[in-house]
Design goal:
seven-stranded mixed sheet; 21 strands; 31% strand; single chain
Length: 451
């Protein structure tokens, strides 16, 4: 059945995609519609067609899904963040579990029991970090988030996922922008100064505010400092310099304008110093649940050697250090490695050593030194692990591998590689680190078939 652009079609929504769009089928053709919910019957207006699929927008909801709720955010329909703000949380968790289970079976071609998702008690105000793209028009600061698959900024100073203090910080930046004459960065011309506003807040209440700039000069920095220090909790005010013509947010140089170079968080009883460049999970409470599940899967005895690959600021390994004989952490970002070493010292942990380099280099270095970990923890970025890294880890032959993933597709791919290399995935547990968004974290335990 042909579907043409500008057609209006009746569509039943039977599922959601990994990016949070709804999907239904019309004459055997998949039709993707953002803003609909599984179980909706809608009139979809077609805005794009191809041989394999179509894209539509919701023109009318004929029958409301039992899973549909009214969004409590005026920006959610346009912003690329909260795809599930118009869906019940129970249905969101059901979908996320099915997404993990489907990816492991369809992509990984292995059979692994997938537990129910460990849900969040707090689904608003949970993010401890925000990176706001900015635009400045006639001295007015517009800060928010990109629209879906675009670089068009949707203004959203009062995002429901962020702490209330972040809105106050944005107001402090806005006043500085208006009075200082600062311009915003134009990615087409490469001109303009202010690229992003980067904020962190820890569970201890400490706030870091960072201006990401296309150059080192910062007009009227004293005014920005004065504005931000009026906000309770602000401990660190920084400037990160990024002059590269890329979509990478942070540059390699960060200087402290006022206060401390880092902020301190407490996670599972351990203190962690976090710099702007350090990777740190954005949801403190869910992170603790994730790390507890990872520790359960690691099953350390007190005599085990643990290799923490992609260790960031050392969080996973250091929270397990009391139950390990030795911890080896591997991380490519120098500032994060410095943080990890400081964090070990801060917590009186003497059985942790860190290697600065990419994951493949660090794993090969341990292999060269004849270090055979009993347990390997993998916590890679969204792209997953390289086949070379997985091969090196398997040659080190740990008894157990704990894989922490933020992308079910790359997780499934890597599980298949590990399965063909002598490891059996025993169990997977999704953890909802990012309520109201399409993202899902998963931790999997694998055991060696030769030990």
């Amino acid at each position: 059945m042909d579907i043409k652009k500008n057609d209006d079609i009746e569509l039943h929504i039977d599922n959601m995609t990994s990016e949070g769009a709804a999907v239904g089928h019309y004459g055997g053709v998949a039709v993707f519609v953002r803003g609909a919910v599984t179980g909706d019957d809608i009139i979809a207006h077609i805005i794009k067609t191809s041989k394999r699929y179509c894209i539509g927008i919701v023109k009318e909801i004929v029958n409301h899904s039992p899973h549909r709720i009214k969004s409590d955010c005026t920006a959610s329909a346009k912003c690329g963040g909260c795809s599930f703000r118009n869906m019940t949380y129970a249905e969101e968790l059901r979908f996320k579990r099915s997404r993990v289970e489907d990816a492991i079976k369809r992509i990984g071609h292995i059979d692994v029991p997938v537990n129910d998702v460990i849900g969040a008690e707090k689904i608003d105000g949970y993010r401890n970090k925000a990176q706001y793209p900015v635009s400045i028009n006639d001295g007015e600061l517009i800060a928010g988030f990109y629209a879906y698959k675009s670089h068009r900024i949707i203004p959203c100073a009062s995002c429901r996922l962020q702490p209330a203090e972040f809105e106050k910080c944005l107001a402090a930046f806005a006043d500085w922008v208006e009075k200082s004459g600062v311009t915003s960065y134009d990615e087409n011309s490469g001109s303009g100064l202010l690229r992003h506003i980067y904020l962190r807040k820890t569970s201890t209440g400490e706030i870091m505010a960072c201006a990401v700039t296309n150059g080192e000069k910062l007009p009227q920095a004293d005014l920005l400092i004065r504005n931000l220090t009026q906000i309770d909790g602000v401990k660190s005010i920084c400037q990160n310099v990024n002059t590269k013509n890329s979509n990478v947010i942070l540059g390699g140089t960060t200087k402290v304008l006022w206060g401390s170079e880092s902020v301190t968080d407490v996670l599972l009883g351990k203190k962690f110093e976090i710099s702007p460049n350090s990777f740190y999970q954005v949801n403190h409470d869910q992170c603790e649940k994730l790390y507890l599940k990872a520790a359960e899967y690691a099953d350390l005895t007190g005599d085990d050697v643990l290799c923490d690959i992609y260790c960031g600021a050392g969080t996973i390994g250091l929270t397990m250090a009391d139950r390990a004989k030795q911890i080896y952490g591997i991380e490519i970002i120098p500032q994060a490695v410095e943080n990890a070493r400081k964090n070990a010292k801060l917590n009186g942990i003497e059985n942790a050593e860190y290697i600065c380099g990419d994951a493949q280099y660090g794993a090969a270095e341990l292999e060269k030194r004849g270090i055979r970990p009993d347990v390997a923890v993998l916590d890679p970025p969204r792209k997953g692990c390289s086949a070379e890294l997985l091969g090196t880890v398997c040659r080190m032959s740990p008894k157990r591998i704990v894989y922490v993933s933020c992308d079910p597709a790359t997780l499934a791919r890597d599980l298949q590689i590990l399965s063909s290399s002598g490891y059996t995935a025993l169990e997977a547990t999704p953890v909802d680190m990012f309520p109201r968004t399409p993202h899902i974290e998963t931790v999997v335990v694998l055991h060696s078939r030769t030990k």
